[in-house]
Recover the amino acids of this structure.
């Protein structure tokens, strides 16, 4: 099976894109307000808090900033509804809480899960989406911003075992997924990269400009680059 988004996490923005984004990206940590990214090297944009980190959009047309932010925000909201481990109403919560039963999933979830499995295969398990219970056992059981407020020492016990991506059963054709009982997915490692890919492609396609999307370091570009690259 071919997973077209598998390499998205390793893309690098160069030239004017990287200089502009690197100079303007807000820091992680305490919640940052939305900020405008001033023109540099023929690009314009905006950055705002999202998904526990920041989201930055750069475009080659100043008139495309507002519409591009709207499209990016919609993609992030949809991805959060699909993949959040901390929302009881997220689509991810259904297979995670199904007790080993197969559950129907949406085409978006199929894409996200395919990207996660592809990353696990490419990294020989170093990036494994079945690490959810291990992360929760170490205290990462709530939104990152809330976790930062908890300054208690970490518990003195080992993380829960990671079953391995091979435990995942899903059929993209029928849109059905099943996890063995006790297995919990965490899709954070690849979902942001996929969201960056999807948003960049949609913004470039709809607005006809060059685009760079940066989601906490997951970078994707689409369309024609600015002068100088």
């Amino acid at each position: 099976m071919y997973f077209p988004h598998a390499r998205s996490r390793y893309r690098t923005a160069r030239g004017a894109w990287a200089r502009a984004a690197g100079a303007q990206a807000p820091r992680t940590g305490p919640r940052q307000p939305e900020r405008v990214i001033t023109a540099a090297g023929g690009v314009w944009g905006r950055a705002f808090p999202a998904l526990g980190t920041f989201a930055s959009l750069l475009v080659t047309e100043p008139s495309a900033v507002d519409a591009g932010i709207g499209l990016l925000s919609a993609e992030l909201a949809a991805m959060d509804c699909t993949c959040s481990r901390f929302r009881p109403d997220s689509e991810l919560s259904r297979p995670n809480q199904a007790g080993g039963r197969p559950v129907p999933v949406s085409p978006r979830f199929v894409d996200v899960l395919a990207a996660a499995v592809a990353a696990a295969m490419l990294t020989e398990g170093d990036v494994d989406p079945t690490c959810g219970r291990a992360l929760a056992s170490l205290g990462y059981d709530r939104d990152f911003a809330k976790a930062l407020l908890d300054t208690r020492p970490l518990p003195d016990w080992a993380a829960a075992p990671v079953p391995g991506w091979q435990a995942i059963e899903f059929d993209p054709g029928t849109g059905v997924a099943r996890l063995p009982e006790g297995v919990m997915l965490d899709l954070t490692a690849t979902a942001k990269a996929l969201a960056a890919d999807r948003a960049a492609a949609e913004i470039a396609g709809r607005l006809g400009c060059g685009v760079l999307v940066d989601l906490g370091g997951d970078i994707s570009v689409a369309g024609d680059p600015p002068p100088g690259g």
Observations:
- The domain at 8-222 is CATH 3.10.520.10 (T-fold).
- The first helix runs from residue 15 to 24.
